[in-house]
Write a structure and sequence with these properties.
Radius of gyration of chain A: 18 Å
Shape of chain A: elongated
Number of strands of chain A: 0
Number of domains of chain A: 2
Structural class of chain B: alpha+beta
Strand order of the largest sheet of chain B: 14-13-12-15-16-17
CATH superfamily of the largest domain in chain A: RNA polymerase sigma factor, region 2, helix turn helix motif
Radius of gyration of chain B: 31 Å
Number of domains of chain B: 3
Order of helices and strands of chain A: HHHHHHHHH
CATH topology of the largest domain in chain B: Immunoglobulin-like
CATH class of the largest domain in chain A: Mainly Alpha
Strand content of chain A: under 5%
Oligomer: heterodimer
Helix content of chain A: over 70%
Structural class of chain A: mainly alpha
CATH class of the largest domain in chain B: Mainly Beta
Helix content of chain B: 25-40%
């Protein structure tokens, strides 16, 4: 009976100006935002920066909360959009947007085993285009169904299914390459 | 194949590291501040009767949290829990969805008489916990709960909710410490219960139930605010140099004052400034000094040298080199063309940023002449001209444009800068002065494809005669390093404005100096005489150091001196044979000449007349006889500020000289202090003293 207030109710309250509700929402979802940001960018520093930007913009964004979707869906959308914006900005910088590719350089600090796993992941992600990466981050990383991921990404469910099959194709190609090498 | 897919899934699942705790706390705090700011800046306050129910309930609970002090939080919540327990026993309650038949006002007040303190002693507890929860919507879900994190390492909303008007800090700290190991108190507030301190007057069954887990008391202690995204420009403190090895010291003049204002704003907020934010020369140069002005026809500035005993070391001396710029007759000054380039990104939305900026620029308008022109470019998500070039006489139009500025969006700094320069160039007629005044909180991060390219761009514009000054506002993401770099490359001044009186100092009292350059690329070079000076140390100017050969190279940029500006530099020098020497003499090096001639060193100054390509040289010896026997308030005060700056930064050369000595010296050097700047400095030093570890 002592159930938690739902995210949607909290978002409603926060949109109406309730500070405590906003603080609570943020506490609940910060780690989730960061994790998704990391899965999307593949770089810790970028994920931290991205989460910072999102946090700063969240109060304004919440004003447009209409309660039409689940809060997490809405939040994922915010993170995805912020990531897209960041990528666009990065593209204009000399520091090329090589996200997952850059992982190589910062991985020393990680434990060796973890680093090895990450290394493979970094390579795999680097070979996929951004749409596929976004889709993967949501479906495999955040455990969304294809329908939910489609909702967040604003594409049809069929597109998500197609993207997943593209991923599988690429992975197969990579495995074949590894086998050949 | 599915192996690969599963492998990818596992890898992705485990990929994210845990977020950095400090960044998390800072980000959460920033988000909540933005949230609060947004509420304040909401166009119209929402009528109370329209308030959504949930906001009301949660807000009510929060209000309760706000009202209970630390002690009361513990005691109050415990007794509320007791009430709840009693209520459960009464059994007249069905969990689940109970519809409220009518709006209800719930008041729960726990008045506590003698209650056991956490440490076991019995004390009369005065604090009262009062809860008022208003329902104005009957559709209350029964499951509404407010759960706060109870772990001490999470920056929960306790500091906002409970700490806001908690009991005196000492008391709350004591309580928090006493109870830190205790389990966090949990309380349950039942709606509909009019709870006095006894259970007799128990009301009918509640229409709604809300659960409240009070934050752990350790959360209540004010947490040090992490420095957000601020970055500062600084270099290692200048070391002691041995004269025979490196007799020449070269640096650029600097008239910036940002560092003092930043330190002041930190101290006023109750924390010592980051050592990296302390640039001693800027702190010293913040204050006006009564240096002799150059005689007519003498040149744009005059050098004034004084030698005084070092306050923190009886065995060394301080050489103070002062440059005082002339104050040209401003009645005949050419018309000014100013472009305000104003950052209106979302982070500027705050009274101490955009609000202060508006007021500051309005103050400045009163100083302009009717024939001066003002234009405004704002940059946020996109850059845009807000006000076409307008004569300063038309103040109404300019003020209206300032008032229209709204914050929002990202920061397209580079586009804004380019537009501002284009506008400034188009406004400038022959013989006129053009300057871009960039006002920002330092969040200059979007749209700069390449910081080096930006500097080059500004330097190119500088050569076409459009200068750039930077005004910093607000704290949080002050990018001091970028501000410095921009102003230095733009031949301008970087100032940090934290109060309206600072705006008055920078934009009204010293406006002429800020906008009219009397000498460009001012470089100083001192050659010390090894016979008189065995070791020397330049205090401050770390970011202004120049290579020795750059002194004579007119292509190397250096600082500008504005009308009436003064520059003060301090050297600490040690005579040969002094017990204060820090380096042993070299066994195999050529011995220094033993015969001194009373000449400590030789000062060379180079400057260019504004617009000129080649520099002029001024030379003057530094004589031991420049030593002053009568107390010189200006030199004493400058030494006190230099000492204070070192205390804030790195006090390794100060021995046991401490903040009390700095305050005493500053007080002795206070002098006339016409505008009260020195008095304010002494107050700041006393405040800083109470913040320093003892």
């Amino acid at each position: 009976m002592l159930m938690e207030t739902s995210d949607e109710d909290l978002a409603q309250a926060a949109a109406g100006g309730d500070r405590a509700a906003f603080a609570l929402l943020l506490e609940r979802h910060y780690d989730r935002m960061f994790a998704l940001a990391f899965r999307l960018t593949g770089r810790r520093a970028d994920a931290e920066d991205l989460t910072q930007d999102i946090c700063a913009a969240l109060p304004t964004k919440l004003r447009h909360w209409r309660g039409e979707a689940r809060f997490t869906t809405w939040l994922y959308r915010v993170v995805i959009n912020a990531t897209h914006d960041a990528r666009r900005r990065l593209a204009t910088r000399t520091r090329a947007a090589n996200g997952w590719g850059d992982w190589e350089k910062s991985r020393q600090a990680e434990a060796a085993e973890a680093a090895q796993a990450q290394d493979w992941l970094a390579n795999a992600m680097a070979q996929l285009n951004e749409d596929l990466r976004d889709t993967l981050a949501l479906t495999l990383g955040e455990d969304l169904t294809q329908a939910e991921a489609a909702d967040v990404l604003g594409v049809s469910e069929g597109t998500v299914a197609w993207r997943m099959s593209e991923v599988k194709k690429k992975l197969r190609a990579m495995a074949a390459e590894e086998g050949a090498a | 194949m599915s192996d690969e897919f599963d492998r990818l899934k596992d890898a992705l699942k485990s990929a994210p590291p845990s977020p950095d705790a400090a960044r998390r706390a800072a980000n959460v705090a920033a988000a909540r501040k933005n949230f609060d700011d947004l509420q304040e800046s909401a166009p119209q306050p929402r009528p109370i009767s329209d308030r959504p129910f949930r906001a009301g309930l949660i807000k009510g609970v929060r209000t309760m949290l706000t009202k209970i002090s630390t002690n009361a939080a513990l005691i109050g919540s415990t007794s509320v829990a007791a009430l709840v327990f009693g209520f459960y026993l009464s059994g007249n309650f069905t969990p689940g969805t109970i519809k409220t038949p009518a709006p209800a006002v719930i008041t729960s007040s726990a008045s506590i008489g003698n209650v056991a303190e956490p440490d076991g002693s019995t004390a009369p507890a005065s604090p009262q916990a009062e809860t008022r929860v208003e329902h104005d919507n009957a559709q209350s879900p029964a499951d509404l709960a407010l759960t706060a994190p109870t772990t001490a390492d999470e920056e929960s909303f306790a500091d906002l909710d409970v700490g806001a008007d908690a009991a005196p800090a000492a008391a709350s700290t004591a309580t928090a410490q006493a109870t830190q190991s205790a389990p966090s108190p949990r309380s349950q507030v039942l709606g509909g219960v009019v709870a006095q301190s006894n259970l007799v007057e128990m009301a009918p069954p509640p229409p709604a139930i809300s659960r409240l887990v009070a934050p752990a008391p350790s959360d209540i202690i004010a947490q040090p605010q992490p420095d957000n995204t601020e970055s500062f420009a600084n270099a290692e403190q200048n070391p002691v140099k041995v004269t025979v090895e490196e007799p020449v010291s070269t640096f650029s003049a600097d008239v910036d004052t940002a560092s003092w204002a930043i330190a002041r704003s930190s101290i006023m907020n109750g924390s010592l400034p980051s050592p990296d934010s302390v640039r001693i020369e800027e702190m010293v140069n913040y204050f006006p000094y009564d240096y002799p002005a150059p005689d007519a026809g003498e040149g744009p500035f005059r050098a004034d040298i004084a030698v005084i005993p070092t306050p923190w070391n009886p065995d060394t001396q301080l050489v103070r080199i002062a440059l005082q710029g002339e104050m040209p007759a401003i009645s005949g000054r050419p018309p000014l063309n100013l472009v305000f380039l104003i950052d209106t990104s979302g982070s500027m939305q705050s009274d101490d940023k955009l609000g202060l900026l508006r007021q500051s620029l309005k103050l400045m308008l009163t100083e302009l002449r009717p024939e001066d022109q003002v234009a405004i470019v704002a940059y946020a998500g996109s850059a845009g001209q807000v006000l076409a070039p307008t004569p300063a006489a038309d103040r109404g139009t300019i003020i209206a444009a300032l008032d229209r500025l709204q914050a929002g969006g990202g920061t397209a700094g580079q586009a804004g800068l380019q537009q501002a320069y284009a506008l400034a160039t188009s406004m400038t007629g022959d013989g006129e002065v053009a300057r871009v005044l960039l006002a920002t909180d330092g969040d200059f991060n979007v749209g700069i494809s390449d910081p080096e390219a930006l500097k080059t761009y500004i330097a190119t514009q500088r050569d076409t005669g459009v200068y750039l000054s930077v005004l910093g506002f607000g704290r949080g993401n002050l990018d001091d390093a970028t501000m410095q770099a921009l102003a230095q490359n733009g031949n301008g001044q970087a100032a940090y404005i934290d109060t309206l009186s600072e705006a008055q100092k920078v934009l009204v009292d010293q406006l002429t100096g800020a906008l009219f350059t009397i000498a460009s690329d001012v470089k100083l070079q001192v050659e010390w005489n090894p016979a008189e000076v065995a070791e020397y140390r330049l205090i401050g100017y770390e970011t202004r150091a120049l290579a020795r050969e750059d002194f004579n190279n007119d292509r190397v940029d250096a600082g500008e001196l504005g009308a009436g500006h003064a520059v003060t530099a301090l050297y600490e020098i040690t005579a040969p044979g002094s017990s204060a020497l820090r380096n042993n003499p070299l066994r195999y090096a050529t011995a220094a000449p033993v015969e001194g001639n009373g000449e400590l060193g030789f000062l060379r100054l180079r400057y260019k007349a504004p617009g000129a390509d080649s520099s002029q040289l001024i030379e003057t010896p530094i004589l031991q006889s420049d030593g002053i026997l009568t107390p010189n308030p200006d030199a004493q005060f400058a030494a006190a500020i230099a000492g204070f700056g070192q205390l804030l930064r790195d006090d390794k050369y100060l021995g046991d000289w401490d903040i009390e000595d700095a305050i005493a010296l500053a007080t002795a050097g206070r002098g006339e202090d016409e505008f009260g700047y020195r008095g304010e400095a002494i107050r700041m030093m006393r405040l800083a003293g109470s913040l320093m570890p003892h």
